[in-house]
Amino acid sequence: MKDGLVAIIMPAYNSSKYINESISGILNQTYTNWVLYVVDDCSTDNMIDLIPDNEKIVILRTQSNGGPAIARNVALDKIKEHQDMQYIAYCDSDDVWFQNHLEINIKLLNKYDMVYSEPNTVFEDGSVAIPFGFVNNEKFSADDLKNGNFISITNVVHNRDCLVSEFDERLDGIEDWDYWQSISESGAKIFHNNIKTTKIIKRADSVASWVTNKKLELCKSKHNG
User: Fold this and answer.
1) Which residue of 60, 135, 162, 189 shows the fewest CB atoms closer than 10 Å?
2) Neighbouring-strand partners of residue 85
3) CATH assignment at residue 20
4) Using the 8-state DSSP alphabet, how is residue 120 labeled?
5) What whole-number distance in Å separates Cα of residue 81 and Cα of residue 158?
6) Which one has a higher pLDDT value, 224 or 178?
7) Positive or negative, the Cα torsion across 119, 61, 209, 124?
8) How far is CA 99 from the centre of its chain?
9) What gap in Å lies between CA 193 and CA 108, rounded to an integer?
């Protein structure tokens, strides 16, 4: 039986410094049945020129620069048109997958609806950074997720059935946290794979710096009643 097709979503804005390494990590995957959607969020650098000409890479564009939530939704709209896409994965344009990332995590989707692995988090100079977000090294807990996001989007792979909504475009910077909570509330079985399968670069200009108290309160109100 042929391995299920994976749709990979990569929002990208002015990522010329990083995108080659990010895409190389995907091209080198041991699991080879995938399509990569690179969504250009109206970049002003030469990033597009650096994307390799490959039949498995599809370039999409936003109508105006709006942030990663809008960019991811552009890809989701395209994915919904293709019923043969069994799995959804994510890779930000400045992150890198280890070559077995898909293979390791997709095997677990025989038992679970969504899997997230661990990132190797580093600063731009290569030094080790504090682990991603709100740290939870134990098994997945929906209650813990309400307290803070400990799931790196670049480490997530899930079944198509987990497409319960779109990313909330009001919540740029924490739209993924909101999305994981929506998936959890749908009754999906979520598994924490405590293996490092990606490299995440912690940058000073990360979209996390866009997070405001207003966004945090909105997200909490959506999931805590």
Assistant:
1) 135
2) 5
3) 3.90.550.10
4) E
5) 18
6) 178
7) positive
8) 16
9) 9
pLDDT given for residue 205 in this prediction: 64
The DSSP output letter for 197 is E
The two tokens of residue 214 are: 């207003």
Q: What are 17-58's pLDDT values in tens digits?
A: 999 999 999 999 999 999 999 999 999 999 999 999 999 999
Q: What is d(CA 202, CA 169) in angstroms, rounded to the nearest whole number? A: 23
Per-residue confidence (pLDDT) for residue 206, from 0 to 100: 62
Contacts of 119 (CB under 8 A, 6+ apart): 95, 131, 132, 152, 154, 155, 196, 197, 198, 199, 200
155: tokens are: 């480490």
Among 104, 76, 78, smallest CA distance to 164 is for 76
* Nearest alpha-carbon partner for 193 in 132, 130, 96, 106: 106
Mean pLDDT, the chain, whole residue set: 91
Share of the chain above pLDDT 70, in %: 91
**Residue found under tokens 């580093």:** 122
Q: Which domain holds residue 156?
A: 5-224
Predicted confidence (pLDDT) per residue in 70-118, tens digit: 999 999 999 999 999 999 999 999 999 999 999 999 999 999 999 999 9
Find where tokens 């002003």 sit: 44
Contacts of 209 (CB under 8 A, 6+ apart): 173
pTM above 0.90, yes or no: yes
Tokens of 45: 């650098």
